[in-house]
Amino acid sequence: MPIIALVGNKGGAGKTTLCVNLASALAEKAPTAILDADPQRSSLQWRELAVRDDAVAVIDAVDGLAAKVDKSRKSFVNLVLDCPPSVNAIQTAQALDLCDLALIPVQPSPLDLWATVHIEDRVEAAKQANPRLRAVLVINQLEPRTRLSQLMRQALAELDLPAARTAIRRRVAYRSSVLEGRTVMDLGSRGAVAANEIRALIEEVVRT
Ligand SMILES: Nc1ncnc2c1ncn2[C@@H]1O[C@H](COP(=O)(O)OP(=O)(O)OP(=O)(O)O)[C@@H](O)[C@H]1O
Ligand SMILES: [Mg+2]
Protein backbone atom coordinates (compact mmCIF):
# COMPACT_ATOMS: atom_id res chain seq x y z
CA MET A 1 0.00 0.00 0.00
CA PRO A 2 1.53 3.32 -1.02
CA ILE A 3 2.03 5.81 1.79
CA ILE A 4 3.17 9.06 0.24
CA ALA A 5 4.39 11.96 2.37
CA LEU A 6 4.76 15.54 1.19
CA VAL A 7 7.71 16.88 3.13
CA GLY A 8 10.06 19.81 3.04
CA ASN A 9 11.98 22.39 4.93
CA LYS A 10 10.51 25.44 3.26
CA GLY A 11 7.12 27.07 3.74
CA GLY A 12 5.00 27.53 0.65
CA ALA A 13 6.83 25.00 -1.51
CA GLY A 14 3.59 23.37 -2.58
CA LYS A 15 3.18 20.44 -0.19
CA THR A 16 -0.52 20.98 0.41
CA THR A 17 -1.24 21.77 -3.24
CA LEU A 18 0.45 18.56 -4.37
CA CYS A 19 -1.09 16.63 -1.49
CA VAL A 20 -4.72 17.39 -2.37
CA ASN A 21 -4.16 17.07 -6.12
CA LEU A 22 -2.19 13.82 -5.96
CA ALA A 23 -4.69 12.33 -3.51
CA SER A 24 -7.61 13.28 -5.73
CA ALA A 25 -5.94 11.78 -8.80
CA LEU A 26 -5.08 8.59 -6.90
CA ALA A 27 -8.68 8.41 -5.67
CA GLU A 28 -9.83 7.98 -9.28
CA LYS A 29 -8.32 4.48 -9.16
CA ALA A 30 -8.44 3.32 -5.52
CA PRO A 31 -9.72 4.42 -2.10
CA THR A 32 -7.45 7.22 -0.93
CA ALA A 33 -7.27 9.44 2.14
CA ILE A 34 -5.21 12.42 3.19
CA LEU A 35 -3.74 12.47 6.69
CA ASP A 36 -3.08 16.07 7.62
CA ALA A 37 -0.09 16.07 9.96
CA ASP A 38 0.59 19.81 9.65
CA PRO A 39 -0.55 21.91 12.64
CA GLN A 40 -1.63 24.57 10.08
CA ARG A 41 -4.26 22.02 9.00
CA SER A 42 -4.46 23.40 5.45
CA SER A 43 -5.60 20.12 3.89
CA LEU A 44 -8.39 19.92 6.46
CA GLN A 45 -9.40 23.48 5.56
CA TRP A 46 -9.49 22.52 1.89
CA ARG A 47 -11.78 19.58 2.73
CA GLU A 48 -14.12 21.82 4.70
CA LEU A 49 -14.60 23.93 1.57
CA ALA A 50 -15.17 20.91 -0.63
CA VAL A 51 -18.29 21.06 -2.70
CA ARG A 52 -18.15 17.42 -3.72
CA ASP A 53 -19.47 15.01 -1.09
CA ASP A 54 -17.15 12.39 -2.50
CA ALA A 55 -14.04 14.59 -2.20
CA VAL A 56 -11.08 12.77 -0.69
CA ALA A 57 -11.40 12.25 3.07
CA VAL A 58 -8.97 14.24 5.20
CA ILE A 59 -8.11 12.88 8.63
CA ASP A 60 -6.62 15.09 11.35
CA ALA A 61 -3.27 13.44 12.10
CA VAL A 62 -1.41 16.30 13.73
CA ASP A 63 -1.16 14.09 16.83
CA GLY A 64 -0.59 10.35 16.74
CA LEU A 65 0.31 10.04 13.06
CA ALA A 66 1.58 6.45 13.29
CA ALA A 67 -1.60 5.19 15.00
CA LYS A 68 -3.78 7.04 12.50
CA VAL A 69 -1.88 5.56 9.57
CA ASP A 70 -2.33 2.09 11.06
CA LYS A 71 -6.05 2.61 11.47
CA SER A 72 -6.49 4.13 7.99
CA ARG A 73 -4.69 1.23 6.29
CA LYS A 74 -7.82 -0.87 6.89
CA SER A 75 -10.08 1.39 4.84
CA PHE A 76 -7.82 2.94 2.19
CA VAL A 77 -5.36 1.75 -0.43
CA ASN A 78 -3.41 5.02 -0.74
CA LEU A 79 -2.54 7.39 2.08
CA VAL A 80 -1.13 10.85 1.37
CA LEU A 81 0.41 12.70 4.30
CA ASP A 82 0.63 16.49 4.43
CA CYS A 83 3.50 17.61 6.67
CA PRO A 84 4.66 20.86 8.28
CA PRO A 85 7.33 22.97 6.56
CA SER A 86 10.25 21.80 8.71
CA VAL A 87 12.40 18.71 8.79
CA ASN A 88 12.75 19.24 12.52
CA ALA A 89 9.02 18.90 13.14
CA ILE A 90 8.05 15.70 14.93
CA GLN A 91 5.37 15.02 12.29
CA THR A 92 7.95 15.13 9.47
CA ALA A 93 10.18 12.69 11.35
CA GLN A 94 7.24 10.35 11.94
CA ALA A 95 6.12 10.59 8.31
CA LEU A 96 9.62 9.74 7.03
CA ASP A 97 9.70 6.76 9.40
CA LEU A 98 6.56 5.22 7.98
CA CYS A 99 6.10 6.33 4.37
CA ASP A 100 7.15 4.47 1.22
CA LEU A 101 7.65 7.62 -0.82
CA ALA A 102 8.63 11.11 0.32
CA LEU A 103 7.91 13.79 -2.25
CA ILE A 104 9.75 17.04 -1.70
CA PRO A 105 8.40 19.97 -3.70
CA VAL A 106 10.98 22.63 -4.52
CA GLN A 107 10.46 25.90 -6.29
CA PRO A 108 12.94 26.96 -8.96
CA SER A 109 14.82 29.31 -6.64
CA PRO A 110 18.22 29.04 -4.97
CA LEU A 111 16.76 29.61 -1.52
CA ASP A 112 14.43 26.66 -1.94
CA LEU A 113 17.18 24.51 -3.30
CA TRP A 114 19.47 25.25 -0.38
CA ALA A 115 16.75 24.31 2.08
CA THR A 116 16.59 20.81 0.57
CA VAL A 117 20.10 20.02 1.77
CA HIS A 118 18.72 19.54 5.29
CA ILE A 119 16.22 17.07 3.92
CA GLU A 120 18.90 14.90 2.40
CA ASP A 121 20.39 14.35 5.86
CA ARG A 122 16.99 13.57 7.35
CA VAL A 123 16.10 11.15 4.59
CA GLU A 124 19.40 9.32 5.02
CA ALA A 125 18.81 9.08 8.77
CA ALA A 126 15.23 7.86 8.28
CA LYS A 127 16.39 5.11 5.88
CA GLN A 128 18.18 3.39 8.75
CA ALA A 129 14.84 2.57 10.39
CA ASN A 130 12.78 2.61 7.18
CA PRO A 131 14.83 0.99 4.40
CA ARG A 132 11.95 1.01 1.90
CA LEU A 133 11.83 4.81 1.93
CA ARG A 134 12.29 6.49 -1.45
CA ALA A 135 12.61 10.26 -1.62
CA VAL A 136 12.12 12.29 -4.78
CA LEU A 137 12.31 16.03 -5.39
CA VAL A 138 9.51 17.55 -7.45
CA ILE A 139 10.00 20.89 -9.14
CA ASN A 140 6.90 22.96 -8.45
CA GLN A 141 5.79 26.30 -9.88
CA LEU A 142 8.05 25.82 -12.89
CA GLU A 143 7.97 28.64 -15.42
CA PRO A 144 9.83 27.06 -18.32
CA ARG A 145 10.72 30.30 -20.03
CA THR A 146 12.63 31.80 -17.09
CA ARG A 147 16.37 31.36 -16.79
CA LEU A 148 16.11 30.25 -13.17
CA SER A 149 13.80 27.43 -14.11
CA GLN A 150 16.20 26.36 -16.84
CA LEU A 151 19.11 26.37 -14.40
CA MET A 152 17.09 24.33 -11.91
CA ARG A 153 17.66 20.99 -13.63
CA GLN A 154 21.43 21.48 -13.54
CA ALA A 155 21.34 22.52 -9.89
CA LEU A 156 19.18 19.54 -8.93
CA ALA A 157 21.64 17.19 -10.55
CA GLU A 158 24.21 18.26 -7.95
CA LEU A 159 22.03 16.98 -5.11
CA ASP A 160 22.05 13.41 -3.85
CA LEU A 161 18.29 13.00 -4.02
CA PRO A 162 16.78 12.20 -7.43
CA ALA A 163 14.38 14.66 -9.05
CA ALA A 164 11.23 13.63 -10.90
CA ARG A 165 11.33 14.23 -14.66
CA THR A 166 7.75 15.46 -14.43
CA ALA A 167 7.74 19.03 -13.15
CA ILE A 168 4.64 20.86 -11.99
CA ARG A 169 4.17 24.20 -13.67
CA ARG A 170 2.93 27.39 -12.13
CA ARG A 171 -0.74 27.46 -13.09
CA VAL A 172 -3.73 29.48 -11.96
CA ALA A 173 -5.77 26.27 -11.85
CA TYR A 174 -3.84 25.06 -8.80
CA ARG A 175 -4.68 28.22 -6.87
CA SER A 176 -8.26 28.75 -7.90
CA SER A 177 -9.34 25.14 -7.46
CA VAL A 178 -8.24 25.02 -3.81
CA LEU A 179 -10.36 28.08 -3.06
CA GLU A 180 -13.39 26.11 -4.13
CA GLY A 181 -12.42 22.99 -2.24
CA ARG A 182 -11.72 21.35 -5.59
CA THR A 183 -8.65 20.09 -7.35
CA VAL A 184 -7.47 20.46 -10.92
CA MET A 185 -9.13 17.10 -11.61
CA ASP A 186 -12.55 18.72 -11.01
CA LEU A 187 -12.10 21.67 -13.36
CA GLY A 188 -12.89 19.97 -16.66
CA SER A 189 -11.13 21.56 -19.61
CA ARG A 190 -9.86 24.47 -17.43
CA GLY A 191 -7.79 21.99 -15.42
CA ALA A 192 -7.04 19.37 -18.04
CA VAL A 193 -3.39 20.22 -18.63
CA ALA A 194 -2.69 20.44 -14.91
CA ALA A 195 -4.59 17.20 -14.24
CA ASN A 196 -2.47 15.40 -16.84
CA GLU A 197 0.67 16.75 -15.23
CA ILE A 198 -0.42 15.38 -11.84
CA ARG A 199 -1.29 12.00 -13.39
CA ALA A 200 2.09 11.95 -15.15
CA LEU A 201 3.85 12.56 -11.85
CA ILE A 202 1.94 9.65 -10.26
CA GLU A 203 2.76 7.43 -13.21
CA GLU A 204 6.42 8.28 -12.87
CA VAL A 205 6.97 8.09 -9.12
CA VAL A 206 4.20 6.12 -7.39
CA ARG A 207 4.54 2.35 -7.27
CA THR A 208 1.09 0.92 -6.64
N1 LIG B 1 2.02 24.76 -9.21
C1 LIG B 1 1.48 25.85 -8.67
N2 LIG B 1 0.97 26.84 -9.45
C2 LIG B 1 0.45 27.95 -8.90
N3 LIG B 1 0.37 28.18 -7.59
C3 LIG B 1 0.86 27.24 -6.76
C4 LIG B 1 1.43 26.02 -7.24
N4 LIG B 1 1.84 25.29 -6.17
C5 LIG B 1 1.52 26.01 -5.08
N5 LIG B 1 0.94 27.18 -5.42
C6 LIG B 1 0.51 28.25 -4.51
O1 LIG B 1 1.62 28.56 -3.67
C7 LIG B 1 1.18 28.80 -2.34
C8 LIG B 1 1.86 27.81 -1.39
O2 LIG B 1 1.44 26.49 -1.71
P1 LIG B 1 1.10 25.43 -0.59
O3 LIG B 1 0.23 26.01 0.47
O4 LIG B 1 0.62 24.21 -1.28
O5 LIG B 1 2.55 25.19 0.02
P2 LIG B 1 2.93 24.39 1.34
O6 LIG B 1 4.28 23.83 1.11
O7 LIG B 1 1.85 23.47 1.73
O8 LIG B 1 3.00 25.57 2.41
P3 LIG B 1 3.21 25.38 3.99
O9 LIG B 1 4.66 25.13 4.14
O10 LIG B 1 2.79 26.69 4.58
O11 LIG B 1 2.38 24.22 4.41
C9 LIG B 1 -0.31 28.67 -2.36
O12 LIG B 1 -0.87 29.95 -2.54
C10 LIG B 1 -0.60 27.81 -3.58
O13 LIG B 1 -1.85 28.08 -4.15
MG1 LIG C 1 0.90 23.18 3.54
Structural account:
The mean pLDDT is 94. The longest helix is centred in the middle third of the chain and has 20 residues, at 110-129. This protein has one domain: 3-Layer(aba) Sandwich (Rossmann fold), CATH 3.40.50. The chain has helices at residues 15-27, 42-49, 65-73, 90-98, 110-129, 147-157, 172-179, 192-205, and strands at residues 3-6, 32-36, 57-60, 78-82, 101-106, 134-142, 168-169. The chain has 208 residues and is an alpha/beta fold. A 7-stranded parallel beta sheet has the order 3-2-4-1-5-6-7, with helices on both faces. Helix 1 crosses helix 8. Helix content is 44%, strand content 17%. Adenosine-5'-triphosphate binds at residues 11-17, 38, 40, 42, 85, 140-141, 168, 170-171, 174-175, 178.
Compact overview of the structure:
By secondary structure, this protein is an alpha/beta fold. It has helices spanning 15-27, 42-49, 65-73, 90-98, 110-129, 147-157, 172-179, 192-205; strands at residues 3-6, 32-36, 57-60, 78-82, 101-106, 134-142, 168-169. Helix 1 (15-27) crosses helix 8 (192-205).
